[in-house]
Design brief:
By secondary structure, this protein is of the alpha+beta class. Among the domains are: 2-83, Uridine Diphospho-n-acetylenolpyruvylglucosamine Reductase, domain 2, CATH 3.30.43; 90-208, Uridine Diphospho-n-acetylenolpyruvylglucosamine Reductase, domain 3, CATH 3.30.465; 212-319, Alpha-Beta Plaits. It is built from 16 helices and 18 strands. The strands form four sheets. Strands 15-12-14-13-17-18-16 form a seven-stranded antiparallel beta sheet, with helices on both faces. It has a five-stranded antiparallel beta sheet with strand order 5-6-10-8-9. It has a four-stranded mixed beta sheet with strand order 1-2-4-3, with helices on one face. Strand 8 and strand 9 (169-173) form a beta hairpin. The longest helix is centred in the last third of the chain and has 20 residues, at 381-400. The radius of gyration is 22 Å and the shape is globular. The two termini are 27 Å apart.
Length: 452
């Protein structure tokens, strides 16, 4: 590592113990000390680092803000952490063509703020939007509450400049609305978890801000009926802007952590938003209220922007609230078809009761994405082992309902042992061969996605 410091004198590099500790983990709970941390400030810096690493067979792990929950940014043995946090410029916003060009270290929420000043917004809005980076979002194909109506990150990435493991710069995609020349390498890079190339510039599609937003909170005293409400809302041909779900334990956790007045005795609640023309969404809000009332829900509408913001602060606080209760909980993000949500919720409750381990559920019910939190203490080895067994049971149940074991968190380290449950071996081998073409020396984020 002293050699790389000497060879790249104009790039900030640290081997200080405190930096190695700080950059040796992410939100997954996995930890491993890197051999060095590098902070490039532009594409040329990334090229220099990758060329040096390629020549000397040093593993490199790209890192955004470390908010990932599957260990994607945790360094492998002897690896350099390549932190893109200093590459944080919004290079250009093009209001005529509805796109923005930015560096990968731009914070999602910062981009949202700048766009709002011009009357635009970027739809993907992860719960960690106030501190996660655009580069990390693209690497994981992040979603968020608005995905039900607007889609996920892959639906908004137009063009990517990135650096291959050997230091070569490539640019994939187009800046036009249409483009079908050659294979779609851009969509291949989205969700690749830093295993194929290092992103240096990203062009994103943006949209005009909606005229109006209506926010409803629907409180249920029956868990299964809350799941039925989700299915009935969608089957009524209404597509909300968001349709979020919190079960009883999630409500209690967030009220104890950051109270906003949610009823702790409720079995579940749905946080629903509609956006668009005022007259249209008012009519749709009435239909949704009727559907939920027929299923026994109590309906409230946010009176103003302040009330609406409080509800969203509460929703985004669920995950940190649960970490406050159990820092070593196991967090999964399964997805099932929307009409199977009631079955999945009841299966999760059954697994919790049978195992004696608390399972807390919340998430993006509108697109079938449930965040399953198995509340175990890693220090209690017997309990933690039971929790890991529950993970496999949850995945089996998810796949039996036609779902997937990861909706937006990726595979990383934590889900790699289970990838074969969903993807057959021939398809995995094709993916591995693609990795080998991009990264023949296997130096870029090795050990992620695919099991050893």
């Amino acid at each position: 590592m002293n050699q790389i410091i000497d060879k790249l004198p104009n790039i900030k590099i640290s081997t200080d113990p405190e930096d190695l500790i700080c950059y040796g983990f992410d939100a997954s709970g996995f930890e491993s000390s890197p051999s060095a941390v590098v902070w490039p400030e532009n594409t040329e810096d990334v090229v220099k680092v990758m060329k040096y690493a390629y020549e000397h067979n040093i593993p490199v792990v790209p890192r955004g803000a470390g908010t990932g929950t599957t260990g994607g940014a945790v360094p492998s043995k002897g690896a350099i952490i390549l932190s893109i946090e200093k590459m944080n410029r919004i290079i250009d916003i093009d209001p005529e063509n509805f796109n923005a060009l930015c560096e990968p270290g731009v914070i999602n929420g910062k981009l949202q703020q700048e766009l709002a000043l011009l009357g635009f917004f970027y739809p993907p809005d992860p719960a960690s939007m106030n501190f996660c980076t655009i580069g990390g979002n693209v690497a994981e194909n992040a979603g968020g509450p608005r995905a039900i109506k607007y889609g996920v990150t892959r639906d908004y990435v137009m063009e990517i400049e990135s650096v291959l493991p050997n230091g070569q710069i490539i640019t994939t995609g187009v800046r036009t609305q249409k483009g079908v020349v050659g294979y779609d390498l851009t969509r291949l890079l989205i969700g690749s978890e830093g295993t194929l190339s290092v992103f240096t510039k990203i062009r994103l599609k943006v949209l005009p801000l909606p005229e109006e937003v209506v926010t409803l909170i629907c409180i249920f005293d029956n868990l299964e009926l809350s799941g039925q409400a989700v299915s009935r809302i969608i089957s009524s041909k209404i597509i909300p802007r968001t349709l979020e779900f919190m079960d009883r334990e999630a409500i209690k956790a967030v009220e104890n952590f950051r109270p906003v007045g949610l009823p702790k005795d409720a079995e579940a609640l749905l946080l629903i938003e509609l956006d668009g023309h005022p007259s249209a969404i008012t009519k749709e809000a009435g239909k949704i209220a009727d559907i939920c009332k027929r299923l026994g829900a109590e309906i409230n509408m946010a009176e103003d922007e302040d009330a609406r913001e409080k509800l969203w602060i509460s929703r985004r606080a669920v995950s940190p609230a649960l970490y406050h209760i159990s820092p070593t909980k196991i967090n999964e993000d399964i997805v099932v078809p929307r009409n199977r949500i009631p079955e999945m919720l009841m299966s999760l409750r059954r697994l919790s009761e049978e195992s004696g381990i608390k399972i807390v559920n919340f998430g993006h019910a509108g697109d079938g994405n449930i965040h399953v939190n198995i509340m175990v203490n890693k220090e209690n080895k017997e309990e933690y082992q039971k929790g890991l067994m529950l993970v496999e049971q949850v995945f089996k149940e998810t796949l039996s309902l036609g779902g997937t074991i990861s909706g937006e968190h990726g595979v990383g380290l934590s889900k790699a042992p289970y990838i074969g449950m969903e993807i057959p071996k021939p398809e995995i081998e094709i993916m591995k061969s693609i990795k080998k073409i991009f990264d023949p020396k296997n130096i870029l984020n090795p050990g992620k996605i695919f099991p050893d």
